Amino acid sequence: MSSSLDQIVDDLEAEHAALAGVLDGLSAPDWDVATHNPGWSVRDQVSHLAYFDEAASRAISDQEAFQAEVRAAMKSGSDLEASYVERGRGMEPRAVLAWWRSASSALIAGARTADPKARLPWFGPDMSPASFITARLMETWSHGLDVVDVVDGDRPDTDRLRHVAFLGVRTRAYSYSVRRMKQPDTPIRVELTSPSGETWILGDPDAEESIRGTATDFCRVAAQRRHVADTDLEVIGDAAKEWMGIAQTFAGPPGGGRQPGEFPKEKRE
């Protein structure tokens, strides 16, 4: 499932373009439509992406300055989320879109200069450039999904989901540690059908416990954009069921996820 850094950057750029196609078609009122993330509008979702794409670009271009910036923010106890949400809410929709376009373009340009063997700083542990850009792709896809879930926009899933699926499996241990839970030693096989019809096998191919279904469903659950009950995933085994109840691809404290019935199956994409 791993890809060269150039391919991951290409896929992130394509994910940016797919979201831009949706955002370009929004009306002014669309930007203030509430999303399924409580308290956040479409505008807030895009502001989140813009802020962290800007931060990611700085982490690539000037690591020492970025690290100093993070230390200063932690020392001051400033609320990063409040700061970028406030900034976006003070802008006209076209300015929020321009902010994100500029930030995402700068990130792509910076990522193309990154040394694949380097380590890049972030708000948590340092990461390889491949993991760093994969995380930005996951964020673009998942926050973009928050947008297309509530507005009239066409952004179909593609096989770029392989990056999100791969991250979903790799973050199994993190999903437990962030909740201070002990991860079972039980191996799990993840067998997914990609949007193009390919079969992806992740995890332990010989495991008795398993998760089977579409990459579309698995990635939505792993990114906490759907409750597993609102998908067609076949989850076999206690450890697999526990994992699908707490899966979390994104960094930070445990997310609230989605509630059963929030996305009835007949209304899913």
Task: Describe this structure as you would to a colleague.
With 269 residues, the chain is an alpha+beta fold. The protein folds into two domains: 5-148, dinb family like domain (Four Helix Bundle (Hemerythrin (Met), subunit A)), CATH 1.20.120; 161-267, Nonspecific Lipid-transfer Protein, Chain A (2-Layer Sandwich), CATH 3.30.1050. It has ten helices and four strands. The longest helix has 20 residues, at 5-24. Helix 2 crosses helix 4 and helix 6 packs across helix 7 (161-170).
Spell out the helices and strands N to C.
HHHHHHHHEEEHEH
Radius of gyration over all CA atoms, rounded: 18 Å
CATH topology of the largest domain: Four Helix Bundle (Hemerythrin (Met), subunit A)
Total of DSSP H or I helical runs spanning 4+ residues: 10
CATH superfamily of the largest domain: dinb family like domain
By DSSP, the count of extended strands is 4
The fraction of residues assigned to DSSP E strands is 5-15%
Q: Descriptors for this entry?
A:
single chain; 269 residues; Four Helix Bundle (Hemerythrin (Met), subunit A); Nonspecific Lipid-transfer Protein, Chain A; four-stranded mixed beta sheet; 4 strands
